Amino acid sequence: MVDADTVIHQLYQTTRAISKDLNQRFEPEGLFSSEWSIISVLRKRGPMTQASLAGYLNIEPPAISKTLLRLEEKGLIKRETGSSRREKLVSLTALSAEKYRQWENIIAAHHADLLREIGTDDLEHFVSVLAALFKNTCRP
């Protein structure tokens, strides 16, 4: 029987390894996995407020502000005042749209390498276990 410490340690190690591998693949593009997650969400969902983006990605507001600043400096996103002066609406720039397909190819190769030789049934079970873990972390 596997103990809880082993499970959690393996989960942390795996997520760190996934991020490290993706960061290495994105390095020639000058992009980080944390930046990609924001770009990907904005591409799929359209412009969002900074607060909505932080909530959707489960990222603390100071951390997302720092990442958004880097993306803004790279010319990949723009932040504009929303319906209230305090609200910031985040959207992709033309430069992001231009580079998106190239980044998407990097992601596709990354995902294919990660999931190779893992059967559909195993993946479905794994997703349900991850969902249960996530649900347990969200309990008061």
TrEMBL record:
Q: Does the keyword Transcription apply?
A: yes
- Superkingdom assignment: Bacteria
SUPFAM superfamilies to which the protein is assigned, alphabetical: Winged helix' DNA-binding domain
A GO molecular-function descriptor: DNA binding
The HTH marR-type domain, residue ranges = 4-135
Q: Could you tell me the keywords of this UniProt record?
A: DNA-binding, Transcription, Transcription regulation
Q: Please name the Gene3D superfamilies in this protein's record.
A: Winged helix-like DNA-binding domain superfamily/Winged helix DNA-binding domain
Database matches in InterPro entries: ArsR-like_HTH, HTH_MarR-typ, WH-like_DNA-bd_sf, WH_DNA-bd_sf
- Mind telling me which PROSITE patterns this protein's record contains? HTH_MARR_2 (PS50995)
Q: Which PANTHER family match?
A: TRANSCRIPTIONAL REGULATOR, MARR (PTHR42756), TRANSCRIPTIONAL REPRESSOR OF EMRAB OPERON (PTHR42756:SF1)
Q: What is this protein called?
A: MarR family transcriptional regulator
The organism named in the record is Telmatospirillum siberiense
